[in-house]
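Technical annex B. To support the medicinal chemistry partners, we prepared a structural model of the target in complex with 5,6-dihydroxy-NADP, based solely on the information shown next.
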Amino acid sequence: MLNFTYYNPTTVYFGEGQIRALLKEIKKYGNKVLLVYGGGSIKKNGIYDEVAKIFKVNNIKFWELSGVQPNPRIQSVRDGVKICKENNIEVILAVGAGSVLDCSKVIAAGYYYEGDAWDLVIRKARVTNTLPLGTIITLAATGSEVDAGAVITNPDTNDKLALAHPAMTPKFSILDPTFTFTVPRNQTAAGTADIMSHIMETYFSSPRQASIQNRISEALLKTCIKYAPIALEEPENYEARANLMWASSNAMNGNIGAGKERKWVVHPMEHELSAYYDITHGVGLAILTPYWMEYSLNDETIDYFVEYGVNVWDLESSENKYEIAKKSIELTKDFFVSMGIPTKLSEVGIEKEKFQAMAKGAVRYGNIGSIKPLTEQDVLNIFNMAF
Ligand code: NZQ
Ligand code: ZN
């Protein structure tokens, strides 16, 4: 196990009715709030009304930034920063899925930066301070409710880039599984693929001998495999939604990545796909993952796949190692297909002509991946396999 520092400052309120903690938490930071949300799902399912009522009854003043899109745009961040600066906002409340949370994190950081917030995303300027942020997450997927990261898109430059700073980590997050009852099938499937990918990014990382992290990862993966099909069939099944929601947070709260290399590989490839084609993040991950696995399987990496096949997919450990590895990759693909996710990039409108540019973008900060580091050419090869 590698050395690590573990610190996660987010207070999590988990379970039905935990929105009752909202007022007490907000009041710790002030009474001028920017409420950030997406395209309207929180208005349809009543969460907006619940929040607005709590604020109105308790004389909390709030301003709104709505319309944050999936693959959140830098323009929404700019709009949010403007509202915060003009109105001396004291605390931000993000209510929605990962895109809303990510946008809010960069608004929180942009408030303390004089220039354009995009500078923070492209690492031209550093995050120095942030407004306090609270979240009410409505989709189990990104883990953004408990982590320091945000991913922002600039459609003018086809860039979709991640930034992270400890100060961007939410101060508190309310995780009520009933708030995910209205998540549609395709987003439930994509969200599950995203959770699983977050787990695999560290599971398939050196060193393999981080037993605690690996066993927890396997339990989280098995939880997704068990409960996603139930949530797809019964969207209001509390146990299924609760397990997916907590799996999502556990994948990203820093626990399973501690003591392992944090050199993600499928995510940087996928971010290029959604930067250029605005596809759903989890769908891109689910398409690429089995091809990346096939490409990464060799004599040096085989034991990772055997452990995965035996402990996650219950394959017989007595079988030939390569048989186990190949079956585990096949089962992974079959699982994504069973949730209705396509298996080819061409099926989601992606064309070969952008492959070179996307491969270059994926390795912009250097080779990606831990157990088999990938070059630009490797990424290109995987895109071609997945086409
Ligand atoms: O916009 P609204 O109307 O709210 O609808 C959303 C949106 O259309 C809908 N939705 C969310 N909760 C719902 C609901 N519909 C009905 N009922 C509910 N309860 O779902 C759609 C997708 O929203 P989005 O925010 O895009 O989903 P997700 O949470 O998957 O976030 C994806 C974004 O997060 C980034 C991704 O790259 C992508 O940009 N990521 C962020 C990470 C992080 N901060 O740590 C890590 C991830 O790996 C990921 O890269
Ligand atoms: Zn992800």
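Notes passed to the chemistry partners:
The two ends are 37 Å apart (CA to CA).
Strands lie at 11-14, 32-36, 61-65, 91-96, 133-137, 149-154, 159-164, 172-175.
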